[in-house]
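About this split. The held-out portion is used to measure sequence recovery: a designer receives only the C-alpha cells and must propose an amino acid at every position. Recovery is the fraction of positions where the proposal matches the reference. Here is one held-out target exactly as it appears in the evaluation file.
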C-alpha cells in the first residue's frame, strides 16, 4: 500500500513520520485508518532507509480513540442475539493484541508524539509505542468505561495497578504532568516544541546501528511476551467481549436515549457530564 486516505507519511533522512489524519474526527480510529497505519508500519519495517518512526496526529488530537459516532442521531440501537453480539465483539476485540504487539515487536522504534487528546484506543496505542513524548496540552483518558467498556492491561503494566485503577475505573481525564508522574509517558514539553523534541530524539536513535536497536528492542518485547504479556492481552480481548455484552443494563439505557434524542453530542454530554469537574486537564473546571 503506497497511497493512504487517512494517514500522512513524511520522511526526513532516517526518520519517518506517520500522522493520523482524520482531524475533523479528532483522529478517531476507524477500521480503515488502523489498516493503513499497520500497513505503513510494515512498509517502514521493510525499508532500510527508515530507522525510526514518529507517530503523531493531525489537528487537536493524537487520537480520540475508536470511532463510536456511527449511530449519531439515529434511533436507539437494537441489540443482536447474544451469540451474534459476542461473536462480533470477539472478532473485534481479539484483533487488539495483534495490533499492540505489532508495534511493540516492530524491528524499529516508534516514538509517539502526543499533541493533544489521547483517549481510549488512542491511549492504548501510545502505551504500546517505545517512547512517548507529550505536549503540555496533552490529555489522556479512557472515558469509554463510563458506558461499560474496557481498559487495557498495558496501563497497569506501565503505571502499576493502583495508578491504573484510579483512572481506568472512573474514566477520568488526566493531564501530561500526571501522565509523567504515573509513568505512562517519558517527557512533557511545551506544545510548540513537541515535534522538534521528538525529531531530535528520533535522529539520536537513528545514529545507533540498526541491528543493535532491533535486538535490544527485541530483548524487551520478547522478554515481556515470555513473562506473559501476550496471554494477558489475549485475556484482555476475551474479557472485552464480555464487557461489551454487559452494556444493556439500566445504568446505560439513558445514554442511548440521549443519542437518539440529541445525537452524538447529547450522548457524550450524558456520559461525561456527571463527572465534571475532573481532577486534571480541560475538564477540571466546573461547567458554566
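Reference sequence for scoring:
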Amino acid at each position: 500500500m503506497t497511497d493512504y486516505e487517512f494517514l500522512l507519511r513524511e520522511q526526513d533522512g532516517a526518520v519517518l513520520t506517520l500522522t493520523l489524519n482524520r482531524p475533523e474526527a479528532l483522529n478517531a480510529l476507524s477500521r480503515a485508518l488502523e489498516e493503513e497505519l499497520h500497513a505503513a508500519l510494515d512498509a517502514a519495517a521493510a525499508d532500510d532507509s527508515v530507522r525510526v518512526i514518529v507517530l503523531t496526529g493531525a489537528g487537536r488530537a493524537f487520537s480520540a480513540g475508536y470511532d463510536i459516532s456511527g449511530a449519531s442521531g439515529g434511533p436507539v440501537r437494537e441489540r443482536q442475539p447474544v451469540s451474534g453480539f459476542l461473536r462480533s465483539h470477539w472478532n473485534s476485540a481479539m484483533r487488539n493484541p495483534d495490533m499492540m504487539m505489532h508495534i511493540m515487536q516492530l524491528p524499529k522504534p516508534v516514538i509517539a508524539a502526543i499533541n493533544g487528546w489521547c483517549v481510549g484506543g488512542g491511549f492504548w496505542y501510545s502505551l504500546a509505542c517505545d517512547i512517548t513524548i507529550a505536549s503540555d496540552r496533552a490529555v489522556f483518558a479512557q472515558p469509554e468505561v463510563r458506558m461499560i467498556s474496557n481498559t487495557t492491561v498495558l496501563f497497569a503494566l506501565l503505571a502499576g495497578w493502583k495508578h491504573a485503577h484510579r483512572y481506568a475505573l472512573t474514566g477520568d481525564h488526566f493531564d501530561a504532568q500526571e501522565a509523567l508522574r504515573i509513568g505512562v509517558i517519558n517527557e512533557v514539553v511545551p506544545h510548540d516544541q513537541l515535534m522538534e523534541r521528538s525529531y531530535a530524539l528520533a535522529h539520536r536513535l537513528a545514529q545507533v546501528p540498526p541491528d543493535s536497536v532491533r535486538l535490544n528492542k527485541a530483548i524487551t518485547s520478547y522478554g515481556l511476551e515470555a513473562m506473559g504479556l501476550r496471554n494477558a492481552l489475549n485475556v484482555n480481548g476475551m474479557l472485552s467481549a464480555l464487557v461489551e455484552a454487559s452494556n444493556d443494563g439500566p445504568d446505560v439505557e439513558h445514554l442511548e436515549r440521549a443519542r437518539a434524542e440529541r445525537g452524538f453530542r447529547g450522548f457524550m454530554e450524558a456520559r461525561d457530564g456527571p463527572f465534571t469537574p475532573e481532577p486534571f486537564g480541560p475538564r477540571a473546571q466546573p461547567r458554566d
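Annotator remark: Residues 7-195+210-283 form a domain with the 2-enoyl-CoA Hydratase; Chain A, domain 1 fold (CATH 3.90.226.10).
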